[in-house]
Amino acid sequence: MSAVAVAVGTMKSAQISNPGAGFQIVEREIPEPGVGQVRIKVKACGVCHSDALVVEGSWPGIPYPRVPGHEVAGIVDAVGSGVSEWKKGQRVGIGWHGGHDFVCPQCRRGDFMNCRNQQVTGFSYDGGYQEYMLAPHEALVAIPESLSDVDAAPLMCAGITTYNALRHSGALPGDLVAVQGVGGLGHLGVQFANKFGYRVAAISRGSENAVLAKKLGASLYIDGGSVNAAEELQKIGGARVILSTVPNSKAMSELVGGLSANGRLIAIGVSFDPLGVAPVQLILGRKALQGWASGTPADEEDTLRFCDLSGVRPMTETFPLEEANAAYARMMSGKAQFRVVLTM
């Protein structure tokens, strides 16, 4: 993605110059949008666990220096030629899905999320850990006025991933849906599941999350550290859907036995280790395993509108852009309650 033409001033950016080197706060020229691009004045940007792939250099083909950040909320600051749907001053966001080519077989079928040449915000081009950024016009999302920038930012990735996975899960109101993990993804998953009308079982380790889980909308809390969570789910009929938000393949595998007949375990917690599931576990009862990745800009707008209407909100901790290293460390520690957001 080529961009810079005429300098219009400078901005602060938190960049990764080399994998593993941590963030540098640098001054850069504010870029001019090119054809089909929009310049966003960033107001808030969530710090997502997937940003570790940029920070540590685990994602192939990333050119450095690179500015991460794919949970962006801001306003349109300028538009390039050929852009008519976005206006200066309009509130917009951008998530993981950072653009598509419109011409590959998947795009021709409308499956933009699986575009063969999909761009990823903060990976394919510089993301939202800076005061201004450029993005392709097709990747932007309109933000409802009632959502604050800090609330909207995490919904661009964590929010859409949990919302979209659940609404496509096949579960119906009244079904038992279990959310594994009450953390950055799980605390949103419990809220969405409750608002969808499911009977919600929250699963985590330790008793400290029990009160919070029920406050978020869970009707049942299962302490997976003291009981067999799969057996506990079977005692109440088995889960029609288990939304696994934990980045732990072993923990996911242990829950397959808690599915009901025709049940489905949906993995959204990222792990590179294989799942340990016997085929007979799936064959008996016609159970299924599925992975789910965020969604398109249209899906993101659905997520934001639903949150606007239902009151679902992320729990956040904020840091100024200049403290990007501290914010990233807080997120990686697993102790944040629950989404870390950089503010400009």
Structure in words:
- With 344 residues, the protein is an alpha/beta fold.
- The chain folds into two domains: 10-157 and 295-343, Quinone Oxidoreductase, Chain A, domain 1, CATH 3.90.180; 169-291, Rossmann fold (3-Layer(aba) Sandwich), CATH 3.40.50.720.
- It is built from ten helices and 15 strands.
- α5 (210-216) links the parallel β9 and β10.
- It is globular and about 65 Å long.
Strand fraction band?
25-35%
* Shape field: globular
First-to-last CA distance:
24 Å
Structural class call reads alpha/beta
The CATH architecture name of the largest domain reads: Alpha-Beta Complex
How would you sum up this structure in a few lines?
Helix content is 25%, strand content 26%. The chain is α/β, with parallel strands linked by helices and 344 residues long.
